[in-house]
Hints:
This protein has 79 residues and is α+β, with helices and mostly antiparallel strands. Helix content is 24%, strand content 37%. The chain has two helices and four strands, in the order βααβββ. The longest helix has 13 residues, at 28-40. The radius of gyration is 13 Å and the shape is globular.
Amino acid sequence: MEFDYIEHTICTYYLSALINLDFSGLENKECEQFENWYNSNLIYHSHFDVVKEEPFFGECEVSDLMGEVITIRQYFEQK
């Protein structure tokens, strides 16, 4: 089985929702944005992992806003 990945850039405050499914601390609009982003990027048998790097200032793919972001990788099985 071989895997590939896609890199995404998201705000650090979405990490808890992504990794632990913990939406506490997020506003309703932020929860909705995250769920829309997640569902549009869902790949069968995918796994998300944080790339080992420091957060930086950039654009969040979830909200399209600038802020403290981190790069994550979405691993999936190649067909």
